[in-house]
Specification:
By secondary structure, the protein is of the alpha/beta class. About 35% of the residues lie in helices and about 35% in strands. It is built from seven helices and eight strands, in the order βααβαβββαβαβαβα. It has helices at about 5-15, 20, 30-40, 95-110, 120-130, 140-150, 175-190, and strands spanning about 1-5, 25-30, 45-50, 60-75, 85-90, 110-120, 135-140, 155-170. It has an eight-stranded mixed sheet with strand order 2-1-3-8-4-7-5-6. Strand 5, helix 4 and strand 6 (about 110-120) form a beta-alpha-beta unit. It is globular, with a radius of gyration of 17 Å.
Length: about 190
């Protein structure tokens, strides 16, 4: 069993190779904190998480994968916002690793983002942006089709991304299927 954050599960399941790399594996989609907790208790063998794991239990190890590119998007009908100021941010919930990570990044690179709506669902954040309610920060791979179709437009800022990690309980067992999955994730995140 492997735990994955929703954006990475979405990335893998949207590829044509999903039938081969995910055969005979149970994927549990959850947030990073719960994935780490479930690895600690033995409910999961591996996890694909985000954030920067600092205070992990001593028996948990991490391997850094590629960063996941993000972009601010909004409805093409929404009035343009001023550079590096987002007054209508459709944000991940405040307790999430993603929200905490990006709010720190905003301070570091000079983005002034004020949240007006919170959700744990990427799909809801995207749909809410398409409806014109605000500006969502979402993984590029998740919104590419809507950008190409004209449902969303990119709000240009400095590049944004979040780190992705493979986590597991020590000792690391050399699992061919996990190596294949992490290699595919790294390949897809570069596109």
């Amino acid at each position: 069993r492997i735990g994955m954050i929703d954006s990475i599960a979405s990335l893998l399941y949207s590829t044509k190779t999903k039938q081969t790399i995910l055969n005979n594996i149970e994927v549990m989609v959850d947030n990073s904190s719960r994935i780490i907790s479930q690895i600690t208790t033995g409910q999961l063998s591996y996890g694909i998480i985000t954030g920067q794991p600092k205070t992990l239990p001593k028996d948990i190890s991490v391997i850094k994968l590629k960063d996941e590119p993000f972009t601010f998007v909004s409805s093409p009908n929404k009035p343009k916002t001023i550079n590096n100021i987002v007054t209508d941010w459709l944000a991940y919930n405040k307790e999430s690793t993603t929200y905490q990570y990006f709010t720190k990044q905003f301070v570091n690179i000079g983005i002034d983002a004020k949240a007006k709506f919170f959700s744990t669902s990427m799909e809801l954040l995207k749909d809410t942006a398409i409806s014109g309610f605000g500006t969502a920060l979402l993984p590029k791979h998740f919104v590419n089709k809507d950008i190409k179709n004209g449902n969303l437009v990119i709000y240009k800022t400095l590049p944004l991304s979040r780190p992705i990690w493979l986590v597991f309980k020590k000792p690391y067992s050399d699992n061919k299927q996990i190596k294949t999955i992490t290699k595919k994730i790294n390949t897809l995140l570069v596109k």
